[in-house]
């Protein structure tokens, strides 16, 4: 039998901010700030080691946080064998990410994922499947995942995806600019990508697993924000090492520093390797402690994930019924 549900979940979800924030306009490249940026790996790793034990939420509070995490997922399919049918199924899951009977037991309505993320060729079927939902389509671009296409081709790819209806563009930077310390080249590249996006939001993927050091991650984060990125994102999901807490902490502290200097809020998206509900809670704790409640909204925080949703739904069912279910009961698409 379902458990008796406390009346705290919907209010807890509604309590977090929903305000629209102005886009980051960027600023001139500040080389003195870039050169001064440092990242103390041992201190960062010690801080990250404390996170799993510092925020232990249970019961209705945990369910509320997990449902909030669902609203922040960019539900993603980026496979060579993607088809319109697969994308349509994924979009159906984005519209109804948690089974209706479970949401009904919790008194929650209107829950969707933050976006659906696809390749350019799948924008049209995604838009058709999401029509009327208000869920944005995000498209990966600029020679994803390596970013080694000719520059003009990468710009044209962005423009084509925006023209096709993508409201968010996930671009990849040229890693060589970071590895060579050519910050002007990185700034110019991202600024051009931002201009090509027009009204679409620019999510800049750093591919942190290929940048070598946390100091490079910190500096690249600042340069991308100075160039006008609306989000900075850890990974493509295709690197050997993707989203890790030390990388995340380095990036969110760069976001905090940028906000302190400019007053502009930039979003953050960890992507790749986040597949368990407990990991999502740790990432949310990191955001709450380092950036505050203003960032706990789909406007400023997203998970790049697909399998994460299935595990969260299993945890929600356990909260409602007291029993764990098989993963096949919660298909993603």
Overall tally of structural domains: 1
Looking at the overall shape, the CATH architecture is Alpha-Beta Barrel
Strands across the major sheet, in which order?
7-6-5-4-3-2-1-8
Tell me the overall shape. globular
- Number of distinct beta strands: 8
CATH topology: TIM Barrel
| Spatial separation of the terminal alpha carbons | 28 Å
Which bin fits the share of residues in helices? Answer: 40-55%
Strand content: 5-15%
Number of helices: 14
Instruction: Specify the structural class.
Output: alpha/beta
- Radius of gyration, rounded? 19 Å
Instruction: Name the poorly predicted regions.
Output: 1-7
Mean pLDDT: 92
- What profile does the largest beta sheet have? 8 strands, parallel
Run of helices and strands: HHHHEHHEHEHEHHEHEHEHEH
CATH class: Alpha Beta
Q: Write out the CATH superfamily name.
A: Aldolase class I
Descriptive account of the structure:
This protein is an alpha/beta fold. The protein contains 14 helices and 8 strands. It has a single domain (55-329), classed as TIM Barrel, CATH 3.20.20.70. α12 links the parallel β6 and β7.
Question: What's the short story on this structure?
Answer:
This protein is an alpha/beta fold. It is built from 14 helices and 8 strands. The protein has helices spanning 9-15, 31-36, 41-54, 59-70, 84-95, 100-106, 123-130, 151-164, 175-179, 183-197, 214-226, 245-262, 277-290, 307-321; strands at residues 73-76, 115-118, 137-140, 168-172, 201-205, 231-233, 267-269, 303-305.
């Amino acid at each position: 039998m379902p458990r008796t549900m406390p009346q705290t979940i919907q209010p807890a979800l509604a309590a977090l901010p929903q305000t629209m924030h102005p886009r980051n306009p960027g600023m001139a490249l500040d080389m003195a700030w870039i050169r001064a940026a440092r990242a103390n790996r041992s201190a960062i790793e010690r801080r990250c080691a404390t996170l799993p034990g510092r925020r232990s939420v249970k019961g209705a509070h945990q369910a509320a946080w997990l449902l909030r995490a669902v609203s922040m997922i960019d539900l993603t399919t980026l496979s060579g064998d993607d088809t319109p049918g697969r994308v349509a199924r994924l979009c159906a899951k984005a519209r109804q990410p948690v089974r209706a009977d479970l949401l009904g037991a919790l008194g929650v309505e209107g829950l969707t994922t933050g976006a659906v993320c696809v390749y350019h060729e799948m924008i049209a079927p995604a838009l058709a499947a999401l029509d009327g939902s208000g869920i944005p389509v995000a498209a990966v671009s600029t020679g994803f995942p390596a970013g080694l296409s000719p520059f003009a081709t990468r710009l044209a790819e962005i423009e084509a995806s925006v023209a096709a209806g993508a409201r968010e563009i996930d671009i990849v930077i040229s890693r060589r600019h970071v590895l060579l310390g050519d910050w002007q080249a990185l700034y110019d590249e991202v600024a051009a990508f931002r201009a090509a996006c027009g009204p679409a939001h620019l999510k800049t993927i750093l591919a942190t697993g290929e940048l070598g050091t946390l100091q490079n991650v910190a500096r690249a984060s600042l340069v991308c924000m100075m160039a006008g990125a609306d989000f900075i994102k850890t990974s493509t999901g295709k690197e050997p090492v993707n989203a890790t807490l030390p990388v995340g902490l380095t990036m969110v502290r760069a976001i905090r520093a940028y906000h302190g200097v400019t007053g502009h809020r930039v979003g953050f998206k960890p992507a790749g390797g986040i597949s368990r509900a407990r990991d999502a809670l740790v990432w949310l704790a990191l955001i709450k402690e380092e950036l505050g409640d203003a960032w706990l909204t789909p406007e400023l925080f997203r998970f790049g994930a697909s399998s994460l949703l299935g595990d969260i739904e299993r945890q929600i069912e356990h909260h409602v019924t007291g029993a764990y279910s098989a993963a096949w009961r919660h298909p993603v698409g």
